[in-house]
Amino acid sequence: QVQLVESGGGLGQAGGSLRLSCAASGDTTCISAMGWYRQAPGKERELAAADSSGGSKYYADFVKGRFTISRDNAKNTVYLQMNSLKAEDTAVYYCNAEAGCEVEYEYWGQGTQVTVSS
Question: Which residues pair with 67 in a beta bridge?
Fold first, then answer.
């Protein structure tokens, strides 16, 4: 079992920055990919950025060039640096991890609200 706890959400201004953190605990030995999803009111949850165990990164078009995902494996923590915030970035952001030494499971954090004022 892996537990994920997000922090760093809150209120930001358009054009400003926020940084999200997600700390993993429990059986973290076989965590592979970690990422950030977001869900805006009335919309489906969508992948914003991901970091694979091999170091390759994925960014959705809507965050490319503005958001940066990074990972500190020693701390079992993944970060999302969000710059040039837009009102449409307002959403609940969820940390996601794929983990399992034999069978891989998907784990979710509880979510952290990000609200961007224009």
Answer: 82
